[in-house]
Design brief:
Oligomer: heterodimer
Helix content of chain A: 55-70%
Number of helices of chain B: 16
Shape of chain A: globular
Largest sheet of chain B: 6 strands, mixed
Number of strands of chain A: 2
Largest interface: A-B, 45 and 73 residues
Structural class of chain A: mainly alpha
Chain lengths: 348, 547
Amino acid sequence: MALLRITSPHLTRSGNTGHVMFLVVLATLPGLTMLTYYFGWGNLINVVWATLIALTCEALVMLLRKRPVGFYLGDGSAVVTALLLGLALPPLAPWWLTLVAVSFAIIAAKHLYGGLGQNPFNPAMVGYALVLISFPIEMTSWLAPKALVTDIQPVMSFSETLYHIFPFLSAEPLVDAITMATPLDAFKHKGALMAEEFWSQEPILSPRSWAAWQFVSLGYLLGGAYLIYRKVFTWHAPVAMLGALLAMSLIFWSYDPSSFASPQMHLLGGATMLGAFFIVTDPVTSATSVRGRIYFGAGIGILIYLIRTWGKYPDAVAFAVLLMNFAAPLIDNYTQPRTYGHQSGRSS
Amino acid sequence: MSDKLWDFHGGIHPPENKTQSTQVPITTAPLPARLVIPLQQHIGQPAEPLVEIGDKVLKGQMICAANGYVSVAVHAPTSGTVVAITEHTVPHPSGLPDLCVIMDTDGREQWAERSPTPDYRDLERTELLDIIANAGIAGLGGAGFPAAVKLNPSQEVSIDILVINGAECEPYITADDMLMQERAAEIIQGIEIVIQLLGVKRCLIGIEANKPQAIAALEKYLLEHQLQQQIELVTIPVKYPSGGEKQLIRILTGREVPSGGIPADIGILCHNPGTCAAIYRAVVLGEPLISRIVTLTGAALASPGNLEVLFGTPVSELLAHCQLQEDKLDRLLMGGPMMGVALEDPSLPIVKTTNCIVASTRDELPQSGPEQACIRCGMCAEVCPATLLPQQLYWYAKSKEFDKALEHNLLDCIECGACSYVCPSNIPLVQYYRYAKGEIRAQEHEHTRSEHSRQRFEARKARQDQEAAEKEARRTQRAEAAATKKRSQSGATTDDAAATKAAVIQAALERAQAKKAGQQATAQDPGARDLKTTKPQPKQTEEPAGE
């Protein structure tokens, strides 16, 4: 009788990393739907294109490392990285921009550090930061939302969008797309205008177009709530981040509402919600204990506000996350929970 | 009974799988033809055999005596003949054989003389402890710590609470459940003996809420005998591992056993219901511990249930009794699926700490998938009942940073397996921790050994130095004597420093010449050394002044 002889435990709950990643993909759908509804097909095409690049890069590295390709593609982490970049990049980001961002994220930010679980920095944010610094013009021109466009011209068709992203596919010259800055970007460059004047002048922030941005953010919030409900991650890091950002913006905005952006704008106007629920919660690169995740999230919230308000970049999720990625091991070092039977966290 | 309950961090809810083995009452396992009785069925020193090959033994006769204080005697589970005292496979994670007394049973079940003490209340503490020690009682809950030792805590601690661990949180196992259902009287009377021994005022029996019949049975007995004031029955929420000693103590009392300490440090003693029943039988009936209740379960058994099994009964006989379907059997476990040991050899015997045998099919306990990368999702940390950071311990064990693992309290890990259970990457975390603990133990052992050899070396060196110093002192004395003699002979101004210097130079020159010539060296040297040793003379004259 050949009996299996391994040490305990002999019982494990079914489920694997691929399943966790699948839930994350599922949770991005409300946000992606909103993006597609208000800004056209661009992000959807980006997501598919980014996924193709990511899987190819992942497979390539696994072949080079002589690992079973199918097994590692199955963990789904490359798909998630691609998905997040596809959502974060502008809808009309040219094909090569996505290629640079995604391939750098997968090959350099993830696999050069040893692959999944070993990377100190969030791969998607490394890719995003790279193209943001290298190609600022492409990165800051966002498509005008549908609500605003309809008065002028209909939202871009699928093929038009596709040709904008892959210009070599089209034989005819392209119609110019109507692009404009994101609300945070516009606010940052409002110059000497008072906030009240800014709001009345900038067409991008008419109530109808402002709603487009808010609904995208609420889509991400919905997806994030689902992931907390499914226990993919805990509420600590996202709530700490949103709380810190809310507190910072509330303090300065109530001090001088004419110069500082409102909390609503900070929370719903940019990549805040995408960051809070899909970037900050990346377990590999965040602090690991419950207390640590609170500090980690709060640090990102504070940094986002500082960079948005006094820094060079209008949206700051990527840089704030990367900076806190640096700090994660240090946070882990000081936030060990109190073990049963111990007086304090760390035994010495 | 309306006591406040505390919660412990984490915990999991694996499928309970307990009902399979609670459908039928406890039955007695058939008497096997041969028993294999290990000398070590407990924590501590192995017992020492008292019998020889060919000896006839009676049921309950002591066949191995406790060897030292932390050791437990072993008794013949039935009457028969000792046929061998040899190595045999025993239930141990290592799978290594150990010394066993092997006896053929004669089927007569002839008891040795028993000395029941129903009026134990008049007995002295030490007399009671002696009875328990001589009955060979080791803790039946799992670790098998000698009961008499546990019941005799050091004088420095005062025990105020007795905790009876009837939680039985491991899936599949129902031995304590059935025992509490059917033998509530024995358990409670055993508890009364323990209470008398310890002089405690509070006794708490903790039972998971999924055992309503056991709770009812105990409650009935307590009410009938007006004991509900003294012995409190506490129903605790179902959560694995609430039956871990440290976790149960926290749930019932809110106290935490200090790291590296024992419950007695915080005034608590913890016993298993089975141990209490065994104490009752030993004291009141005069019967030593020779059998226990074992759960036989798993989908590969056609008729699972709980059996009263004599120690030394081979597992294979019990499996046959419960109608094992061999073609279905995939894994054989001693203990439950969370903390049990996988058995390779079904011929090994039931011992005092065996509470369950699971004969599982492949579908029942499927092998976990291949290990994936740790993504630090932290699910392990959420369920860890010791509030550790399993994901960090895993990194440190894997990278052999054992000092960091110790800083993260690796040694507080109770190996309950909750972390491995929830890990979405199928990482066998507990195996990493066992590896790290083993390495740390080996390093400590190595350290102790090198410390010993260092001490030995230093002692030897000190001795040698002392000998050399004594030798040197003797030589100096001789040289002085010689110099004084020389001085008194010549009467010249040898104490003049310049003259001495000149003599030294002269001697050095001579030595160099001798070396050059390559001859007469042995003749020259002694002279030169003699001259040299005259040099410290001024120092010698200084010494009295210094004193």
